[in-house]
Amino acid sequence: MPKLENILLVGASGRMGNCVQTLAQERGISIQKCTTRPCVQLPSPWPSDVSVVIDFSCDSVIGQMVAKLLERRPPFPPLVVGTTGLSNDTMESIKLYTQRAACLVASNFSLGIAILRACVRLAAAKLPDAFEAEIIEIHHRHKRDIPSGTAQSLLNDIRDAQMLSHGASGETTPESVKIHSLRMASVVGEHQVILAGPGEQLRLVHQAENRSVFAHGAFHAAQWICGQNPGLYHMEDVFGI
Length: 241
Ligand code: NAD
Fold this sequence. Notes:
The protein is α/β, with parallel strands linked by helices. The chain folds into two domains: 6-105 and 212-239, 3-Layer(aba) Sandwich (Rossmann fold), CATH 3.40.50; 111-208, Dihydrodipicolinate Reductase, domain 2, CATH 3.30.360. The protein has helices at 15-27, 59-71, 88-98, 111-126, 149-166, 212-225, 235-239, and strands spanning 6-10, 30-34, 52-55, 79-81, 102-105, 132-139, 178-183, 189-197, 200-208, 231-233. Nicotinamide-adenine-dinucleotide (NAD) binds next to helix 1 and helix 2.
């Protein structure tokens, strides 16, 4: 895999932005910051050695940032988006960018969540439709999006697996799966999927203990995407799950 040389970081002043900078310092990778307030401004002059853009900002920033990147002359740097709660308009901007460069969107960069999602897909497909599924997610009080992007991805995983396996005729319709969101103190992130059926319960839980797990995942994704063709990618592609 090519070495990460220089990262353009969007959302540098935030919780995740700080974490990414700490990790970059530990690994000897240089960081250029993209200003987002009062509006998005790419670094000028443009640093010639930008390997990848990593974004941990908010929905309203991404469309502006993509538009600014597309105003530049090629080559267009690969883009890794960690921001969650993306609107349809923002996803359309990202899809536009995927015509020019590789782009990875991840609601969660941790390996544990990628494995959890694979387990949930398996459970939802294999358990009989008498089983009910519910999702509980807990995050710190400052998190903006409710439900979390990861909980939304888990919900989609359950729906897709149930629809594929049981069709729409089952006792538990995919629409009946609910997300319960709690916002408490400084919790980094917990996701729990409960599948309950006649006489038994299956609980699948993931707890992120600190933010550096997401920063490590983002760097892994960034390194992986540097060798990829234009297109839209996900963490499942990175981990080969
Ligand atoms: P934060 O609020 O601490 O930081 C957000 C950053 O974006 C800051 O630099 C802030 O200045 C900038 N920003 C926010 N709103 C803005 C606006 N309206 N205009 C211009 N700039 C703005 O948030 P955080 O905890 O660092 O999280 C950032 C994003 O990353 C969130 O969407 C969060 O859910 C997501 N996240 C993703 C993962 C993952 O694994 N994919 C992990 C943790 C957090």
